[in-house]
Design brief:
There is one protein chain. This protein has 113 residues and is of the alpha+beta class. The protein has one domain: Alpha-Beta Plaits, CATH 3.30.70. The chain contains 2 helices and 7 strands, in the order E-H-E-E-E-E-E-H-E. Strands 1, 2, 3, 4, 5, 6 and 7 form a 7-stranded antiparallel sheet that branches. Strand 4 and strand 5 form a beta hairpin. Helix 1 packs antiparallel against helix 2.
Length: 113
């Protein structure tokens, strides 16, 4: 598992969740669940790998994770690197829209391995 993550300080959970859901919907992300994990997926893997975004609230922090499915749908890949560039570019664009929509300062970002 390798995912890109961004953490923001939450100031109004209800408004922030509505903003995230609106942006995901505008970008055609659909709610999915697998093995007890809820996330949002864009694309079915026909043209490019599916792009996935998950958000959680941990106390006063919003954690947003994003990744793409590897070809063959086995495993995950963070948004770093040059493989699957079109899928990663699309997911990065959605993350940027969420960041701009929230208008919150990033307190931490990186890659979960």
């Amino acid at each position: 598992m390798s995912r890109t993550y961004i953490k923001f300080k939450s100031t109004n959970r209800e408004d922030e969740e509505q903003t995230i859901l609106r942006i995901l919907q505008e970008n055609k992300y659909k709610k999915r669940e697998s093995q007890g994990e809820e996330y949002y997926q864009h694309g079915a893997g026909i043209v490019t790998s599916p792009q996935l975004i998950k958000y959680t609230f941990e106390n006063d922090t919003i954690v947003i994770e994003s990744w793409v499915r590897n070809f063959g749908f086995i495993g995950e890949d963070s948004l770093d690197g040059s493989s699957q560039i079109f899928a990663k570019k699309s997911a990065k664009g959605a993350l940027k829209k969420i960041q701009e929509g929230l208008g919150l300062e990033i307190i931490e970002q990186g890659t979960l391995k």
